[in-house]
Amino acid sequence: MKAAEAAVACLDKKSIQELKSLASPPPACLDVAKGCLLLKGEKKNFAWGNAQKMMNNPAKFIEEV
Question: What is the mean pLDDT of residues 32-48?
Answer without folding.
Answer: 94
